[in-house]
Amino acid sequence: MTITWWQILLLTLYAGYQIWDELHIYSSASSPVFAGMISGLIMGDLTTGLVIGGSLQLTILGVGTFGGATRIDANTGTIMATAFSVSLGMNPQQAISAIGVPVASLLVQLDILARFANTFFAHRIDKKIEEFDYKGIERNFLLGIAPWTLSRMVPVFLALTFGGGLVQSVVGVLNNELQWLGDGLEVAGAVLPAVGFAILLRYLPVKKHLPYLILGFTITALLTVVFSDIQLLGENVAEVVENFEGTFNALPMLAITLIGLALATISYKNGQNGKGTPQQTTANTQEESTEGEIEDDEL
């Protein structure tokens, strides 16, 4: 399957929109899982898009930016990994490791270039402010969008237009001469979400709320087993009873959601009914603080 011109056009436009959304609108449209959904819909394989987008979303779960710092561009990595995975029939886990993560890392350099180029318009706005030229301020503010969007649109367009042959050759090598490397990349792609969880737990106050972590993990594991058995029972009943269409796929996720909601409610109420004066609470928090962990009021 080749990537058609309209698919390249839509993916390129979305690549430009998602960074603008991330900087100005702050909706979920700039998240990797949303990028995977959009890319999957455009490429005609929603499942692959969600697998890749969800995996990269979990990978950067504990990664954030502060001030002028930059981070890996998982959104663009998701777009390219999904497009090539669907068009070339590439294993999604392998596409995450071989395309998604490298592209996301390389785009850090273009992110810095976009920030650098944007200072040109910032200085022009400073000049227009001194001249009380409000139209000029608005015009240069809008022109500042160009470096950001082009930093994503240009690489996506060039890669999808001219990179298909190169990626196909790499996939062929990974599945034949260097199959051991291809298998390793698949394993790495499956492990990356766990790395994201580990990074997130590193900065959350896990030691302070360790009972909740243990309780949530245990209940989730138990309910997953219970619902898996219920689903298996439903499949067996369906083989015996004609026209039986019972499905239980959504139950585990619903249970996890309700457990998370209950624990969040308990934590919120405990926070509202905090013991001691604010000064005492601050002192206790500092005593219980552990190096590297972020306290609740910083989240």
Describe the structure.
- The model is unreliable at 276-281 (pLDDT under 50).
- Helix 1 (5-25) runs antiparallel to helix 2 and helix 3 (46-59) runs antiparallel to helix 4.
- The longest helix has 39 residues, at 92-130.
- It is globular and about 75 Å long.
- The protein is mainly alpha-helical and 299 residues long.
- It has helices spanning 5-25, 32-43, 46-59, 74-88, 92-130, 134-143, 145-162, 164-174, 179-203, 210-240, 251-272, 278-288.
From the spread of the alpha carbons, the general shape counts as globular
Structural class: mainly alpha
CA-CA gap between termini: 45 Å
Helix proportion: over 70%
Order of helices and strands: HHHHHHHHHHHH
The description of the largest β-sheet is: none
Q: What is the averaged pLDDT score?
A: 78
User: What portion of residues belong to β-strands?
Assistant: under 5%
Number of strands: 0
Radius of gyration: 24 Å
- Helix count? 12
Weakly predicted, low-confidence segments:
276-281
Can you give keywords for this protein?
globular; 299 residues; 0% strand; mainly alpha
Please outline the helices and strands.
Layout: H1 5-25, H2 32-43, H3 46-59, H4 74-88, H5 92-130, H6 134-143, H7 145-162, H8 164-174, H9 179-203, H10 210-240, H11 251-272, H12 278-288
Helix pairs in contact: 1-2, 1-7, 2-3, 2-4, 3-4, 3-5, 3-9, 4-5, 4-7, 5-6, 5-7, 5-9, 10-11
